[in-house]
Structures are given as C-alpha cells and as structure tokens.
Amino acid sequence: WLKPFWPELGQGGQRFRAPVPTRGAARRNRCRPHRRSRPMASISAAPSYLPLALIDKCIGSRIWVIMKGDKEIVGTLRGFDDYVNMVIDDVREYTFTPQGKKITHLDSLLLNGNNITMMVPGGDPEENDSKGGVAAK
C-alpha cells in the first residue's frame, strides 16, 4: 500500500505524509471554528521559539548545561541532534562533591541528551557564584 508514496519517503529528511482529501464528505465534515460572542484578545507580539529552534540559535556560542546529579558543563555548542545529544568544545566540567567543587577542562565533549536537566544560553556558573546561583551550592 506504500508503493504510490514510496518516492516521498526518502527525500531529504521529509517525513511521510499521506495525501489529505479535500473534496466530498471529508470537506463537509471538517471541524469549524467556535463562534465567540466577544472578539478574542490580541496576543502579545513577543516572539516564541520551539525548544530545538532556540538551541539551534545557540550554535557557536557559549552554553551552560546543568546535568542530572551534581555536574554542570560550560562550553561552546558545536551541534546537536533531535535527541538533544550535544557536541561541545572548550569545555569546563564542574562536579560538586561533599569535599567541594572540582573543575575539569576538556577540549571536546559529546553529551548525552538524556542527562540534561536545564540549559542556559550564554550563561556561566562563575558569574552566578557571587549571586548565590546554582553553582554556589
């Protein structure tokens, strides 16, 4: 049953989409928008980004990644995939233990997206130490 759509499956990362019928019963049975008695309030013009689009804007700049457990990573984001696995260069890894904070310098790091808790574009834990930020545990 996929033969008519086979050429569409392998084209440049596009996902498979079956054709949508636009005539006949399918068109008549479409949901119609709800009619409101009052006009809808206007939405602010503030831009909104999807998470992956925001991460994409951070490529080539510094990023602070807070991991599960007691680790934080700061470095230059080089790339990522759909699972938010990241390649980071010029890395400082902060590990927090009962004995104190340990800093490790690495040239490059491949980070598993499953272990990421939070990302701060342009952030740096050294700046937040004096302000009582996350790194000041």
From TrEMBL:
MF (Gene Ontology): RNA binding
Gene name of the encoded protein: LSM5
Name of the featured protein: U6 snRNA-associated Sm-like protein LSm5
Keywords: mRNA processing, mRNA splicing, Nucleus, Ribonucleoprotein, RNA-binding, Spliceosome
Biological process according to GO: mRNA splicing, via spliceosome
GO cellular component: Lsm1-7-Pat1 complex; spliceosomal complex; U4/U6 x U5 tri-snRNP complex; U6 snRNP
Domain of life of the source: Eukaryota
Job of this protein: Plays a role in U6 snRNP assembly and function. Binds to the 3' end of U6 snRNA.
Subunit and interaction comment: LSm subunits form a heteromer with a doughnut shape.
Main location: nucleus
InterPro entries, per database record: LSm5, LSM_dom_sf, Sm, Sm_dom_euk/arc
Organism ancestry: Eukaryota, Sar, Alveolata, Dinophyceae, Gonyaulacales
Record's keyword annotation contains RNA-binding: yes
Region: Disordered, residue numbers: 17-38
Family: Belongs to the snRNP Sm proteins family.
Location in the cell: Nucleus
Domain Sm, first and last residues per copy: 50-125
Composition bias, Basic residues: 25-38
